[in-house]
Amino acid sequence: MRRSTVALPALAVCSALLVSACGTRSEAGATPGGAAAGETTVVIGFDGPLTGDLSALAIGAKNAAQLAVDQANKNKSVPGVKFALKSLDDQGQPGTGQQNATALTGDKQVLGVVGPLNSGVAKSMQMIFETAKLAVVSPATTSPGLTQGDNWAKGTKERRFTTYFRTATTDAVQGPFAAQHMHDTLKLTKVFVVDDKKAYGAGLAATFTDEFKKRGGQVVDTDQINSGEKDFSSVINKIKSSGAQFVYYGGEYPDAGPLTGQLKKAGVKIPLVGGDGIADANFVKLAGGGATGDYCTTVGAPLEEGAAGKTFAAAYKAAAFKDPYGAYGGYAYDSATTLVEAVKAVVAANGGKVPADARAKVTEAVQKVAFDGVTGKVSFDEFGDTTNKQLTVNQVKDGAWAPVTSGTFTAK
Amino acid sequence: MHELPQTLANGLLLGSMYGLIAIGYTMVYGIVQLINFAHGEVFMTGGFGALTAFLMLPSGVSLWLALPVMLLAAVLVSTSVAVLAERLAYRPLRGSSRLAPLITAIGLSIAIQQMVWAWYPDAKQARTFPHLPGGPYELGPVTVQTGDVFLVVAAVLSMLALMWFVRSTRTGRAMQATAQDPDTSRLMGINTDRIIVTAFAIGAAFAALAAVAHGLRYGQVDFRMGFITGLKAFTAAVLGGIGSIQGAMLGGLALGLAEALAAGYVKFLPGLELFGGGAWANVWAFVLLIVVLLIRPQGLFSKLTADRA
């Protein structure tokens, strides 16, 4: 009876493997460079999924933050202070993010953090940053609950973390903005909603669904997928027979690309619509030609349209980074600049020196920051959310994302 | 219910892929009683082998011409990895307790994954895989892709070839003998080491075939793709009765169908509305495995043989 006795231990091994697949690997990035005599080094942390499926977004964001730090040093934005960037890889996993948060709070030179990119990761880091009074400015997390508390959807907003800020608009606006565009502008009334069950994807799909129904649209059916899997034939099968006019997908490009590719290959020629998580060139690449006509919403006006955005794009190009700045580059640049501005205010108020309780002071200063960033005006409301509520609808044309229209969400 | 034909077709396609990979688990287990957990990674390296071949061909070459080259490269890479693994990792442990090679296999799986992650250019995220031109084809209520046609044809032909090989060639019969009793076969003059390597190599070649089909079907390869697919194929092998070649293929088909049907129809069952949909397909696949193990520990399609006890 060897056969039966081997199967059960083997199953146990399978489950052990599944658990260990969520293992950790931390990778220290740049360490602070040597400061000249009389200069204090202030380290700005960066945390994001530098490896894995979302690395394209994270590397762009890291480079943009690096650019902001380099420019602050070059322009001597804060006299007597030399900035350095310390970047850590969270692999998009909450557990790794939590370790990185502990590592960053443990480093006394770190006075602020840019990141993370994933809402799920942010959730696991917030408490640690709050305890250490360390300001964190996220360029990308859009789940509303991060700043407005778990009951934001019921109308009771409550800020639990005074150290958490973000330059990206929340899904509370992004999902509805997509609903507004699809229903009112494009006159599409039947949608099939799919999400990946993650904090970002499920949240986005929920806010979209609410607004779409409010405007008189019909959600013909819904389904969920497992992020990381590649076979979407069952959900596509359902979409095909549902009679939907478009698919709304809450999630990120590594799954959205193959999903829309397989959808079109199965002969279902309806557009897929998503949030800023699919606003990446890799979405088009992974779709294998199936992405044409798909839509996504992005936060803010198109970077290349404003003068400041153009300057940023030129500076980024001049810095000769290997990878493009991606969907969040502008926000990461503004997030890093926010921290530089906050340090500047704190140092100026303390007679040109970094004070002893710098972290708490920087957090207070971030709350009051107001400047013209590359993505628009940067300042934060009472929850730590950006006051910039501009959004853009993009569409894939000729193998690349192109902006269609920009505007603000108007509640109905 | 008009989705049913398409659901069944999807299940069969997915199942054929599981079946092809399951051959590797079942052949190796049948001969050395080792569950080769690195087999999922053998499958993954096959995908990267095919991609490398495609990238090295001059651009603009028709994919129909490139396909044989890609297949050859995939088989070459996969079998090399499997044979090296056998030679360097498993052979030194032959005769030790059964747990040692099992744990080695798990370690090897992680090592191969990380090697591809670290050394293959841009493999830290999914790499796009070429698509076969043409299609989709409408066959009545069912839509299939060109890549799916390749998968079905490849699966059927290779299975027939394998059955002929095992039944009718000298090496095939030597394999059966080794599976039944390695010590006696060695006394009869069979080079069991060679037979074991052959088993690893054949399993790897089937995995390579599956990897090319996987790439064509889903349009990408990535360093983690062997993990969950490998687990599923292993499940298929156990379902069908590990050690049995026909069982592996049938187990794969059963698993693929079960997943597709669960994803499509479980939510219509009273009380289970929440557990339907694509996200739960894996759960139902493993539920099926547990149920089968409880009722028929020897697997669905295997006869209980006394000689293994």
UniProtKB/TrEMBL annotation, chain A:
Secretion signal, residue range per the UniProt entry: 1-21
Matching Pfam families: Peripla_BP_6
Keyword terms, alphabetized: Signal
Domain Leucine-binding protein: 41-399
Keyword presence, Membrane: no
Keyword presence, GTP-binding: no
Domain of life: Bacteria
Gene3D superfamilies from the UniProt entry: 3.40.50.2300
InterPro entries, per database record: Leu-bd, Peripla_BP_I
Family indicated by similarity: Belongs to the leucine-binding protein family.
Record protein name field: Branched chain amino acid ABC transporter substrate-binding protein
From TrEMBL, chain B:
CDD domains attached to this UniProt entry: TM_PBP1_LivH_like
GO cellular component, one term: plasma membrane
Transmembrane annotation, as ranges: 12-32, 39-57, 63-85, 97-120, 149-166, 195-217, 274-295
Record's subcellular location: Cell membrane
Membrane topology designation: Multi-pass membrane protein
Coiled-coil stretches: none
Highest taxon listed in the record's lineage: Bacteria
Alphabetical list of Pfam families matching this protein: BPD_transp_2 (PF02653)
Keywords of this entry: Amino-acid transport, Cell inner membrane, Cell membrane, Membrane, Transmembrane, Transmembrane helix, Transport
Molecular function, one GO term: L-phenylalanine transmembrane transporter activity
Transmembrane keyword on record: yes
Protein's GO biological process: D-alanine transmembrane transport; L-alanine transport; L-isoleucine import across plasma membrane
Family: Belongs to the binding-protein-dependent transport system permease family. LivHM subfamily.
Protein name per the record: Branched-chain amino acid ABC transporter permease
